[in-house]
Design goal:
The chain is an alpha+beta fold. Helices cover 22% and strands 36% of the residues. The protein contains 7 helices and 16 strands.
Length: 299
């Protein structure tokens, strides 16, 4: 299992690299969530409905759709139910537990190889799936395509934890979507509150094929780009006392690198969002439409 490596600065991984690719809010409906992203200074994309091939090869709705805020490195996703499918029902079940972030996705160069590795490491895996969604290009219609390696429900109880390979980088990271009024540049980490730090750390280490190291808040998995922070309820309460933990496990916060804390702090204040400056970052509580949790902005 590889140890920590120097962080890389590219959108997609090569060889055996693994990146923190995106996080996902599960919401009731996309319009208000998109407006909430806009109030926080992000430039959200248009609403898109996701599809996947059925047994006969015809494209069918997966049961979810999304809105994204694409960053120079990684992105934020907002997911909502579009149809009564297993995936749509999973989203609703997660939202019933709490409204907020329920997805953490890691990207690799070869999702099929990751799928095999997960099975070899003792995870019950779902079949490899090829998904796509229409993309607004400002011209002819485009398609974003990706391959997903997912585990069965309960294998990663923290949420929808998955590994994917992007097939259409130019469609997903269009330059026109990468500039945000708040100066957001990159997704750098996700903070997950768990009941048993040691057990979760061992499992995430097997899932990501990366080692864990102790941190002031719990355990950290350093990826080739980005990190996963596993923390106790007490540690999270000290870090983000404004956010009550609804139940465990809880994806309570994620970190975004920005160009200027001064710029984003002024913008969030004008938008009426609750913020607090700490020694390390600017803590900003999610708007209600995005659920329970917080952004941790840092330069």
């Amino acid at each position: 299992m590889p140890g920590a490596r120097p962080a890389v600065d590219r959108q997609l991984p090569i060889l055996d690299e693994i990146f923190l690719d995106h996080v996902g809010h599960f919401v009731r409906e996309p319009q208000s969530a998109s407006r909430a992203l806009g109030r926080a200074g992000f430039a959200p994309t248009a609403i898109s409905i996701q599809v996947a091939p059925g047994p006969d090869g015809a494209l069918r709705p997966t049961g979810t759709g999304n809105v994204t805020a694409m960053l120079a490195r990684g992105y934020i996703e907002v997911l909502f139910k579009t149809a009564d499918t297993p995936l749509g029902r999973e989203l609703e079940a997660a939202r019933a537990r709490y409204h907020g972030v329920h997805l953490a996705a890691f990207t690799v160069a070869d999702a099929a190889a990751a799928h095999r590795r997960l099975a070899e490491n003792g995870f019950r895996v779902r079949p490899l799936v090829h998904m796509q969604r229409p993309v607004d290009t400002g011209g002819p219609p485009g398609t974003a395509a990706f391959t997903l390696a997912r585990v069965e429900p309960g294998e990663m109880p923290e949420g929808r934890i998955q590994i994917l390979t992007h097939r259409t980088e130019a469609m997903v990271w269009q330059p026109r979507w990468l500039s945000h009024p708040n100066g957001a540049l990159a997704l750098t980490s996700i903070m997950i509150v768990v009941a048993d730090i040691e057990e979760a750390a061992r499992r995430f280490a097997r899932f990501t094929d990366r080692q864990t190291t102790p941190s002031p808040l719990g355990q950290t998995i350093e990826l080739d780009r980005g990190r996963v922070q596993l923390v106790t309820a007490d540690a999270f309460a000290r870090k983000v006392p404004e956010v009550a933990i609804p139940s465990l496990p809880f994806m309570g916060a994620y970190a975004i690198r920005v160009a200027s804390l001064g710029v984003i702090g002024d913008m969030l204040k004008r938008a009426g969002l609750r913020t607090r400056r700490s020694e390390q970052d600017l803590v900003a509580i999610f708007p209600e439409e995005l659920g329970r949790g917080a952004w941790l902005f840092a330069e």
